[in-house]
Structure formats: C-alpha cells, structure tokens
C-alpha cells in the first residue's frame, strides 16, 4: 500500500522533544519521527503565528526558513523550490500572521548529537484566529488521546501492538507507542504534555479559571536550529563534497552525471543508494545541483 | 526461460527416461519446446518423455506424493494426497483464453479444517456432497491468506471406501457472527445482519450463460448502509425490516456487498428500527480504512491538499469524461464542455482520504461559480482557477458524504454532499477540560 501518511496534530513541544526516528531502509518506505507520546509522524498539521521568515536563497530560487510559534514552543520550517505549492504560498505571507501548514518532518543532528526536527510544508496558508484555535483544540484533544493510549500501554507492558489495537488504539499510534517504549531511555514526562493541554485550554477558555495543578512548561528549545546539515549524518558535509566532486567528474559531455554511473561510483566511496538519494535531494534544495532530466544530475554553475 | 530454472524439470524427466536421453539432447529439446514453441512446462515434460519412450505418464510426478490433513497444508505443496469430505461442490463454466471450460469447485473438510478446492480438469469426475474422497496429486496455493487445494491434469479423485470422518467443528458453524452494517468487511462469511430495506429492485442479468433474476437493494441499520443481492426471490419489499442469517460479504473495490446465498435464512422483524439518516453515518478515516469502504459514509476533517485535475476542467460532450487538451481518450478531438471539479485530500488526524467533489458542491465550498471561474480563466488563465480555489478551501474544515472505495493508495470518496463545518470551540474546550478534571 502507498497510503498517504496521516497529518498528525502535535504541539511544538511534543514534536521538538522527539529523540527517536524510524529511518527508511528501503525504497518508497517513508521515514518517521516518533514523539515521546508515541505519535509515529511522517506528516504533521501545524498552526500558530508565523513570526519569522527568512529567504536564504535568491529571489529567483527562494529557500525559505521560518518559525511558527504555537503556545507550547516553535516549529521550524523550511521550504525549498521542490515544495512548489508552498514556495508560491510563502511569497504571499507577511509575518506576523496566523498560519496553518501541512508538511513532512525532517530531522537534523546538532553538534551536541541532539536530534532536531523541522517541518517542510507542502502547503502553508494564512488562517484566521478561529482556525488557529480549532487547531489548538484538536491538538489538545489529540495529545490527551495519546496520553491515555500511553497509559494503557504502560499499565500492561505485555500488550504489544496487537493488544493495543484490540484495546482500541489506532494502529499507527500503537506501533509508535511500542517503539517509543522499547527505545526510549526514560518514560515520557506526562506533566509536560498535560501542561501543553492546560496551556491550550487556558487560551481557549479565558473566562474559566483553570488550574490543573500543572506547572507551566519551561521551554528547553533552542532559539534556532541548524538546518544546513544533511539529515542525520554527522559526516554529512564530507558526503556532500564527495558527491559534488563525483557529479563534476562524471559530467563529461555537459549533459550532467548519469545517475547509474554516479550510483556505482558513490557505492565504491561507501555511500549507499539511499544516502545518495537523500544527499542529492539536499544538494538540490541548496541549489547546488539540479536534474536536467530524470537520468542525470548536474551542477548549477 | 533460463537454463538454471530448468534444472528441476531436467532432473524430473531424467528420473523417468534414465539414460534414454543425454543431457545435451534434453537441453536442446527443452529449449525447443519451451522457448521456440512456447509450450507449457507440463506439456513439454509429457512431450519429451513420450518422444523418447517413457512408458508410464503417471510417473511424471515431482517426487513421491505425501498425505496431509487440510490443517497441515502450507499452501506450497506441489504433490499432496488429501482424504476429505466434500462439503460443497458445484460445476462452473469459466472462460480460459476465450474458450469455455468446465471446472468443479467447492469446499472440502476433514477433522482439522476446511478449505476451498478446484478441479481444473474434471473430465467425467462427479462429486457427491457429503461423500469422502481421496484427492491425489493435488497442489496448493495461498489466496486471500487461505490455503486452497487444486487438482490439475495429473490429479485423481477416488472414492474413499469405508472411511468415516467428522468434519472440523468450526465448519458447521451454526452461529453466524452478528454484525452491524458498518462492521461488514470484504471476505467475511456466515454473518448475521438486521436492517431495513431502503431500496429494492429485481433485475434480469446473464450469469454463467443463463438469464436469471437478481434481487438487489440497499439495507440500512443504525450504523450504516450496504448493498445486498439475493439470487432467489425471497419476497423482499422496500420498508421491511429483516434479519438475515448466514450471508457472506463480497466486495467491489473495497465497498462491501452482502450476498444472500442458498444457505441464508431471512426472517421479517416487527420491531421498529432506527436507520441512519444520510450523512449521519459519521466515520473517522481510520474506521473507513479498517473496513475498506462503503455506501453513504460521512467524514469530517481538514482539506490538506488539492490535486491536479481540480478547478475548471473540460468534459467530452459524448461521454462526459474529463478531457485534456481537447482530446477525449474515447472520442478523439472534441469541443469540451466546461465543468468544475475538486480533487482534494481530507485529513481528520486518524488518516487521509481522497475526495472528488462535483460542480455544485465545488461552487458551494469555494464560492466560485462556473461563470466566475470562466471569467477568471479568461482574464488570468485556466490555472488561476484551481489556485484561487486552493486558497479558499485549504486548511478549512469540511464534512463530506459519499460512497468510499479503496485501492493501493488508500480510500477515496465520490462526494455526494459536502459543507463547511463550524466547530463550537468553547463547548468542546469546556468538555475537554471537564474530562481532564475528572481524570486527574
């Protein structure tokens, strides 16, 4: 099945706290970020205030970066020319404004080894405050649902994916929970996510005095994340250079480097086909190479 | 075919012919039969053996056969003997490469299990329901995760004299599974459903070469609607509430259809019965994915994508199909008729579903009429219409009701009605707060 991935409703706090990843091991298999509450996320639906936009590309070939702030933290977004719809949509946005975006998640590894998550919107549109509030509500409900599902899993550790699904948990969620529990060093901090829900409810219900006895969340997020590095790889810059050199070398007739030849050569350099695919996507996003057609890659001079 | 794949076949032929043929000749013959003349493997084996003087055709059997119980079958047996009782058998006519051909298929059972079987070359074989036979030289395959028994041209069927057999318990299942209509899933057998007939018709169709009448309609309960069909006149009438026992569920592209077969019991129920209103059969996308599809389902979610083929399109005046660049795939160059359509993705957080929205609802959702779209296209180009529509519906919350089908790319809905949804944020936030306070 090539089913479209669900757009998970997760808060910035939950998405950014993710430390786990299920990386694609074969072609066409999607990669996932697994949040501490076991959301198995390939695509997200996010909303908040777009507070920063930065074009780090050129006017002709923009590469947008931005920050969307929800009540719990910030989503970091980047939009390259391959997100054709989102690129066009970005030009119509003027910060600050309420936006909603749907897109895939990407991960980066910082110098300290910590994993950072960014969102690459497929669509990003300006919305009114009501739509943003609906998102806050939906995300709060969804977070509460995950907390409860997590509790089910913790109450009976023998219950694996099948057991959880039988107990009424959505299959993708059940897989995420089991993966999170088996691979995390510590249990999720439920107070933190109750705090996210409390924060949303306080905002949505200003007239009710809400005190669930949960401390306000103190953000441990970075002000900025380094999104230049390749996804996941620590020696990413080296791989990029190697591939750029190979493309230069293999482009003998000006038509570009034939992909098959490139793959073979990359292989001998110890770069797998998947890595090559990934890094060449990054290089394309950076505007360093392009595809004159499907069978070739070429440097942009 | 590569020579390496031929090794087992070579071994087999040599097993029969011994030194009547040398390797070189055998390889050359195999190549002639298989590659030059495209003869099937079984026919090739027979042909070569006959040509070089092999005597007994029944020796052409991969290894010696083993006997197995149905419950022991793995689905990869090449040559297996099975002693089993015929629970059901019928002769069918199928068409193979344009030629009509008779086969026998049905259900076999023994103490361990039951399964479907097919005799592809029945010849003069007749099977009696309830009798026990020895099915020799069968091969097995897996279909729909179930093992099936097949008898090809070397299969034989003998009456098993003096064998007694109690067929596995779950076979003669007297208690059908009670199901709500929304739970029905393609491939289920022996289900019980209670519902009201909301439409009913008798149609004459040609099935297996004969004209027969099929009685079909739509059945509804408080969870959903399903199409049903019966091949016998059960005297069913619109408006009746009926209880069906022992029906089975087939599917068409994920839409479950209830079949009232021969073994099915139907009784009328007097009780007043609540039936879903159109649009009230609310489902999450995850629930829809689980059952595959169905009639008249409603989802609510956000529009997260708008696909190519949306906006102002042209349709062929003859067949109404959408056309590209003035060319209809069926009718060639035509003057297209303008129409509006949306192909969108709705995501409710549990899953994503494709939806195709017709003109009327496209106008309603986007506020852009066909006239306005034509004006916009004239002034700014046709692509502008879809872009303008996108800005008006992306990230908007809608409900959509229609029939849902599934394929490899997941579920998709042909939308009958749709509308924007107003969420009562205050009410729902209060409800969530109450729930939290009660739980903490």
Annotated CATH topology of the largest domain in chain B: OB fold (Dihydrolipoamide Acetyltransferase, E2P)
Q: What class, by secondary structure content of chain A?
A: alpha+beta
Task: Count all strands of chain A and give the number.
Answer: 12
- Can you tell me the residue ranges of chain A where pLDDT is under 50 for at least 5 consecutive residues? 229-234
Q: From the helix content, strand content and strand pairing of chain B, which structural class follows?
A: alpha+beta
Largest sheet of chain B: 5 strands, mixed, barrel
How many helices of chain A?
A: 9
DSSP strand count of chain B? 23
Based on the structure given, which CATH architecture of the largest domain in chain B is correct?
Beta Barrel
Proportion of helical residues of chain B: 10-25%
What's the total helix number of chain B? Answer: 8
Which fold name fills CATH's third level, the topology of the largest domain in chain A?
OB fold (Dihydrolipoamide Acetyltransferase, E2P)
Instruction: Write down the domain tally of chain B.
Output: 4
- The share of residues in extended strands of chain B comes to 35-45%
What does this structure look like?
The complex is a heterodimer of chains A (301) and B (440). With 301 residues, chain A is an alpha+beta fold. Chain A folds into 2 domains: 1-228, OB fold (Dihydrolipoamide Acetyltransferase, E2P), CATH 2.40.50.140; 236-299, Orthogonal Bundle (Arc Repressor Mutant, subunit A). Chain A contains 9 helices and 12 strands. In chain A, strands 1, 5, 6, 7, 8 and 9 form a 6-stranded mixed sheet that branches. In chain A, helix 3 (129-155) packs across helix 5. Chain A starts with 6 loop residues before the first strand and ends with a strand. The relative contact order of chain A is 0.13. The model of chain A is unreliable at 229-234 (pLDDT under 50). Chain B is of the alpha+beta class and 440 residues long. Chain B folds into 4 domains: 3-59; 66-170, OB fold (Dihydrolipoamide Acetyltransferase, E2P) (Beta Barrel); 180-268, OB fold (Dihydrolipoamide Acetyltransferase, E2P) (Beta Barrel), CATH 2.40.50.140; 285-420, Nucleic acid-binding proteins (OB fold (Dihydrolipoamide Acetyltransferase, E2P), Beta Barrel), CATH 2.40.50. In chain B, 21% of the residues lie in helices and 41% in strands. Chain B is built from 8 helices and 23 strands. In chain B, strands 2-3-4-6-5 form a 5-stranded mixed beta barrel. Chain B has a 5-stranded mixed beta barrel with strand order 9-10-11-13-12. In chain B, a hairpin with a 2-residue loop joins strand 12 and strand 13. In chain B, helix 1 crosses helix 3 (41-51) and helix 2 (23-36) crosses helix 3. The radius of gyration of chain B is 30 Å and the shape is globular. Chain B starts with a helix and ends with a helix. At the A-B interface, strand 1, strand 9, helix 3 and helix 6 of A face helix 4, strand 15, helix 7 and helix 8 of B.
């Amino acid at each position: 099945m090539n089913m479209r991935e669900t757009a998970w409703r997760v808060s910035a706090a939950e998405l950014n706290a993710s430390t786990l990843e299920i990386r694609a091991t074969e072609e066409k298999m999607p990669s996932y970020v697994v949040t501490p509450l076991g959301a198995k996320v390939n695509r997200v639906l996010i909303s908040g205030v777009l507070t920063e936009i930065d074009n780090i590309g050129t006017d002709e070939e923009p590469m947008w970066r931005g920050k969307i702030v929800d009540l719990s933290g910030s989503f970091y977004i980047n939009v390259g020319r391959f997100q054709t719809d989102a690129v066009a949509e970005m030009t119509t946005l003027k910060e600050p404004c309420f936006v909603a975006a749907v897109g895939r998640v990407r991960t980066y590894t910082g110098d300290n080894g910590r994993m950072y998550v960014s969102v690459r919107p497929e669509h990003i549109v300006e919305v009114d405050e009501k739509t943003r509030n609906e998102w806050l509500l939906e995300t709060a409900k969804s977070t509460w649902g995950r907390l409860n599902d997590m509790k089910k899993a913790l109450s009976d550790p023998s219950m694996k994916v099948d057991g959880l699904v039988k107990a009424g948990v959505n299959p993708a969620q059940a897989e995420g929970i089991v993966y999170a529990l088996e691979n995390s060093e510590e249990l999720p901090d439920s107070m933190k996510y109750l705090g996210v829900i409390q924060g949303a409810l306080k905002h949505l219900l200003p007239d009710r005095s809400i005190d669930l006895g949960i401390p306000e969340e103190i953000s441990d997020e970075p002000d900025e994340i380094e999104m230049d590095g390749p996804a996941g790889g620590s020696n990413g810059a080296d791989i990029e250079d190697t591939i750029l050199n190979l493309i230069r070398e293999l482009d003998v007739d000006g038509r570009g480097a034939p992909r098959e030849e490139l793959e073979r050569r990359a292989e001998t350099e110890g770069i797998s086909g998947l890595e090559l695919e990934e890094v060449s996507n990054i290089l394309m996003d950076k505007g360093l190479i392009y595809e004159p057609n499907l069978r070739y890659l070429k440097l942009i001079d | 075919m590569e020579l390496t794949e031929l090794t087992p076949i070579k071994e087999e032929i040599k097993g029969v012919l011994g030194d009547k043929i040398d390797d070189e000749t055998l390889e050359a013959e195999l190549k002639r039969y298989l590659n030059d003349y495209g003869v099937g493997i079984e026919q090739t084996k027979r042909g070569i053996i006959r040509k070089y003087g092999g005597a007994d055709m029944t020796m052409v059997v991969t290894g010696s056969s083993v006997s197995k119980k149905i419950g022991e079958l793995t689905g990869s047996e090449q040559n297996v003997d099975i002693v089993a009782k015929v629970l059901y058998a019928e002769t069918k006519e199928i068409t193979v490469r344009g030629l009509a051909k008779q086969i026998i298929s049905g259900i076999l059972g023994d103490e361990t299990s039951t399964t479907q079987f097919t005799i592809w070359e029945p010849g003069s074989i007749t099977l009696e329901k309830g009798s026990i036979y020895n099915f020799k030289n069968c091969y097995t395959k897996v279909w729909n995760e179930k093992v099936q028994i097949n008898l090809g041209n070397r299969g034989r069927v003998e009456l098993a004299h003096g064998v007694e057999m109690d067929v596995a318990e779950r076979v003669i299942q007297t208690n059908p599974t009670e199901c709500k209509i929304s739970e029905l899933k393609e491939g289920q057998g022996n289900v019980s459903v209670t519902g009201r007939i909301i439409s009913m018709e008798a149609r004459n169709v040609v099935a297996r070469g004969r004209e027969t009448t099929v009685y079909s309609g739509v059945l509804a309960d408080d969870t959903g609607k399903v199409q049903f069909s019966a091949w016998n006149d059960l005297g069913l009438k619109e408006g009746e509430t009926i209880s069906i026992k022992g029906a089975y569920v087939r599917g068409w592209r994920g839409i479950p259809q209830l079949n009232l077969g021969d073994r099915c019991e139907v009784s009328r129920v007097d009780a007043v019965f609540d039936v879903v209103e159109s649009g009230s059969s609310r489902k999450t996308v995850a629930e829809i994915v689980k059952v595959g599809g169905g009639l008249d389902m409603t989802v609510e979610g956000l529009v997260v994508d708008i696909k190519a083929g949306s906006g102002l399109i042209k349709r062929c005046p003859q067949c109404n199909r959408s056309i590209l660049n003035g060319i209809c795939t069926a009718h060639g160059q035509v003057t297209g008729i303008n129409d509006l359509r949306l192909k969108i993705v709705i995501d409710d957080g549990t899953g994503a579903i494709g939806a195709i929205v017709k003109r009327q609802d496209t106008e309603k959702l986007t506020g852009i009429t066909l006239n306005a779209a034509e004006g916009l296209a004239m002034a700014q180009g046709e692509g502008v219409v879809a872009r303008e529509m996108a800005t008006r519906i992306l990230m908007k919350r809608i409900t959509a009701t229609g029939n849902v089908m599934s394929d490899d790319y997941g579920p998709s809905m042909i939308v009958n009605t749709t509308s924007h949804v107003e969420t009562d944020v205050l009410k729902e936030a209060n409800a969530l707060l109450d729930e939290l306070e009660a739980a903490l």
